[in-house]
Amino acid sequence: MSDDPTCALCGRPIPPDVPQSLHHLIPKLKGGKNGPTVLLHHICHKEIHATLSEAELARNYNTPEALRSHPRLAKFANWVAKRPPSFISRVPKRR
Q: Which residues form the HNH domain (predicted)?
């Protein structure tokens, strides 16, 4: 069992040598500068911002549970969960 932190989106461990980033649950542009953050794999963080606008994040997707409930993010998390924690891929641009 690893002591690595767990990604708030996909649930995989985040080893120290893997690209990672802090996600502001309420975007900084929407007043969340000093608000709560969660640790994510960089690929998971990019997928969140490719999927949702800052306004949508602030209004409806400001908890890890809400993020995981979004259909595209749930599908992505399910897909990426089968990959190793160090998996990196290009994330498509916002649709």
A: 7-50
Contact 24, 40 (CB under 8 A): no
Side chain identity at residue 89, one-letter code: S
The answer to whether the CB of 81 falls within 8 A of the CB of 12 is yes
pLDDT in tens, 7-21: 999 999 999 999 999
**Residue 20 near residue 10 (C-beta atoms within 8 A):** no
Name the pLDDT band for 93 (thresholds 50, 70, 90): low
Domain spans in the chain, listed from the N-terminal domain onward = 20-80
Q: Are the beta carbons of 78 and 51 closer than 8 angstroms?
A: no
Residue 59 structure tokens: 């209004």
pTM of the model: 0.89
Helix or strand run (H / E) with residue 40: strand 37-41
